[in-house]
Amino acid sequence: MSSKTKISPVSSYLTEKRIVFYPAGPSKRQVLGNLIGTLDLADPSAAIRAILVREEKGSTIIAPGLALPHARLDGLSKIEAAIGICPTGVTDPHDGGTPIRVYVLFLGPADDMKEHLSFLSSASALFQQKGFLDKLTKLASPQGVLHAIRQAEKGK
Questions:
Q1: What is the pTM of this model?
Q2: For residue 83, what are the β-bridge partners?
């Protein structure tokens, strides 16, 4: 991809407050709503609607145990991202019953498809590294997860 746009690492969009752990039992909708709540958004309800509309068009599961729910929103100037980790997995019958252990939720500016696709590509490659999901689900703190992501990004 020849582009003059410098792609920022996924970790540059995250903070410790945007990394959430879930005990067994949350629903997919609870996870999505909670992750959206960690973001700095003017209208969180518009964000959840956009994510759910996107999810209805097709699953955002990109690997066993990994989903990247995403949407583009008016009013955003940059990518907003959060991570949800549920070691036991969240099962949603609409997703074919595949338990999702890591959600990488992100919202991009409605008018910047390139940045949106760049983040999707970077996050997909990062989180599909062999053994990475297992490593993340064994961690117990947002600090640990952020450190593991930064280490994985350096190792590319």
A1: 0.92
A2: 19, 104
Burial of 27 (C-beta count, 10 Å sphere; 0-12/13-18/19+): exposed
**How far is 141 from 156, CA to CA, in rounded Å?**
23
Angle at the Cα of 144 (from 139 to 147), degrees rounded to 5? Answer: 130
Q: Which H or E element spans position 10?
A: none
Rg for the chain, CA atoms, rounded: 15
Residue 137 · residue 72 · CB < 8 Å: no
State the number of CA atoms in the 13 A half-sphere of 21 facing the CB.
14
Helix (H, G, I), strand (E, B) or coil at 29: helix
Three-state helix/strand/coil letters over 69-107: CEEEECCCCCCEEEEEEEEEEECCHHHCCCCEEEEEEEE
Distances from the Cα of 27 to the Cαs of 9, 23, 30, in angstroms?
29, 11, 5
* pLDDT tens digits for range 28-71: 999 999 999 999 899 999 999 999 999 888 888 888 999 999 99
Strands 80-90 and 100-109 come out as antiparallel
